[in-house]
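Quick one: structure for this chain?
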Amino acid sequence: MSREVVMKPFTLLAALIFLVVAAAHAYRLYMGWAITAGPYDVPTWVSYGGVVIPLILAAMLFNEARR
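Got it. Here's what it folds into:
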């Protein structure tokens, strides 16, 4: 029996968006950029979560898109 390929373009698009977010946070960590949101300085440790969490979500979405 052959498996039918199911296209899930929105799932794939969401996974790619999560990858872009993770790459942006990784680039911020690499470059050492400071981010200020209003009167608050965003610490760099926030970007570690901004790399790990979107990567996990992207992996889950890529897995879902393959099913």
